[in-house]
Structure formats: structure tokens, C-alpha cells
Amino acid sequence: MGTRCDADGRRGLAGPGGPELPSMARVCDHLLGGTAHFELDREFAADLAPVLPNLPEHIRVLHAFLGRAVRHLAERGIDQFLDLGTGLPTVGDVHGTAQRVDPDARVAYVDADPFTVRLAEAQLAGARGVTVTRADLCEPASVLTAPGVTGLLDFTRPVAVLAMAALPFITDDDELSGVVAAYRDACSVGSALVVSHLSAVTATPEQVDRFGDVAARIGCRPAWRSADAFRGVFNGYDLAEPGLVQTARWRPELGVEGTGPGAQDVDTVSAVGLLVSRPVPTELALVR
């Protein structure tokens, strides 16, 4: 959601200028029962259905995990959230969840697609403690110096960095590690990282390939990574219990609704990392 791949496979800030192409952000909104989507998004969701039949459950499980993680961190005292690759804030959005715990919680939403950003701005008009910024999460310096981020969040205090759907579209492993580390290095001790990633749990190799073929129509073929391959992005973090697990297995006792009987078969892994000490900054870190 938060990145766009052009024909050269390079990510840039600009997404489609209007609804000429489907958007995964709007597809997710459709599957979550929202209203900020168009006929071409619903048609694209229908094209994906035979490829990955559990996609609607996949989206619901990710959304429920995000709610549990945000609630958990807000209850730990974190009141600042940087949501990367936001897509469209919909029912059970980050600021609503966080502000139910702490009415003064603040959320900076970031997405690269200008049309998605315009829709998000319209949805969030009048919301307190919230900004929406158009920027590419693959360019941490641009994100971390954007007025909508610096004017709302204080990085000398703990910040939870959220990246729920965009990381599979960073297909180079070294780039993925470097981008995540740059956000880590900008944060203070006590901050957190909340991420999910595509990981074949029940999907067959054929389904993975076909899903990539369909996804490529709107920008970029995503990477699927095993839990072991993805674990490296948490360098410098301590994993909150129960660690990096199938998404539905992360703290279900927190009770955020939205999953069904097929939740354990959803093809994602998720975790929450806690920044308990200052790591040595990486070369990609933002100097501030």
C-alpha cells in the first residue's frame, strides 16, 4: 500500500493520480466493509478471489492484529504512532483504537499513493491528533522530515512504527532491513515496531505465483518470506510475547474481533518488537 513499483521495479513517491487503476488500499477497504472504493477495486478483488480464496479473511486477520497491537502498546503507555503504508483508515482505525485508551494519542499516517492520501484526508477531516502525509516509506529521510510527521510526533519520546501491508513490496532483503533500521534509529528507547508479512502457511507455490501475477497488474509483484527469513528486520528489538507467529496467534486474548474459523490458515506472520536499548545507527539512519 505504501510503495509503488514502476516498470523498472524502482519505488517512487507518486502513485496513480486517480482511480484509473485498482488500489490494494481500496481493495482492503472493500473487504473490510468500508465505502472508500470503486467498481474497479471490487472487480480486482474478484480477480484475486480464485487465486487466494482466503484473502478476505487474510485482510480481517491483519486488521484485527493491528487493533490488538495498538491497544497493547497504548496500554503500555505509548501515545505516538507512525503508520507507514497506511492505505485507508477504516473501521477500527489506528487513531480510534489508540484514543480509546489515551484520548491524547497521536497518529501520523503516511502513504505514497496521492489518490489514497486524498481519500484519507477526506475521511479524517476534523479528526484530532491525526495527520496524513504523502511520502514513500522506502525513503525514511523524506518521511521523518515531513511536516505532517515532525509537527505531530516527538521522536525524543517513544513512537510505535507500524508497517502492516507494504513490506512485501520491498523485494530486496538488504533494502528491507535497511529501511526498517532507519526508522528504528530515529526512535528513542521505549519505542516499538509492529509489522506483518506475507508468508506461505497454506498457500501453494502455484497460488503464490498466480497471486504475484495478478498483483503485478497494479504495480509490483510482492515477496513472500518465511518467518526465519523475515526475522532479521527485528534487529535491535526484543520481540514481545509470543514472538513472530502466524498473525491470528498473536495475543488473541486481547479480544479484538474480526477473525473467523479460517484465521489460523491466513498466509501472514506478525510480531511486535520493543526497542529496549539504543543500537549502533546504520548508514541509512536519519541524522537529526
UniProtKB/TrEMBL annotation:
A Pfam match is: Methyltransf_19
Instruction: State the source organism's domain of life.
Output: Bacteria
Keyword list, A-Z = Methyltransferase, Transferase
What GO biological process term is on the record, naming one?
Answer: methylation
Keyword hit for Transferase:
yes
Which stretches are annotated as coiled coil? Answer: none
Q: List the molecular function annotations (GO) for this entry.
A: methyltransferase activity
Report the protein name in the record.
SAM-dependent methyltransferase
| Organism of origin | Saccharopolyspora gregorii
